[in-house]
Amino acid sequence: MRPLQGSRSRGVVVGTVTLCLAAGWALQTPGGVSLVVPQPNINATVAQNILLSVEYSCRGVATIEWKHVSSWGTTSIVEWRSGNYVNISTVYKDRVTTFENGSIQLRNVGMRDAGYYFVTVMDEHGTNAYGTIIVNVYGTN
């Protein structure tokens, strides 16, 4: 692939990127939903407890959902509405703790817990924010 030639091409690209960014900001609802994942990669050993940490902000009531995706498939872990109900999958029932800030703790991890953890935060108006945490699990030697 060749680099762009001439200042006119660069101006078009910069203008297009600026326009796309402005359009994205314009589509956000006032307040909307924001999500921060402070630690996107976690290394753990078998039998360790891990914290999948996030922080979200939302106007109104938020729905938080966590899923795990690995070579064994996709599993819904937990879904809850802030201040309301918690629905934990039977597979994770005895191993997951939920927190007000959207984080979850996973106890006694095993090799099958390695993979991608996807969190979705949705407000009452359907505005979403997404985050991903990659978890590596290593055996004990």
UniProtKB/TrEMBL annotation:
Signal peptide (UniProt feature, chain positions): 1-26
One Pfam entry name: V-set
Tagged with keyword Electron transport: no
Name of this protein: Immunoglobulin domain-containing protein
Alphabetized SMART domains for the sequence: IG (SM00409)
GO cellular component annotations of the record: axon; dendrite; plasma membrane
GO terms, biological process: filopodium assembly; positive regulation of excitatory synapse assembly
Keywords: Glycoprotein, Membrane, Signal
Transmembrane segments: none
Locations listed in the record: Membrane
Domain called Immunoglobulin: residue spans: 39-138
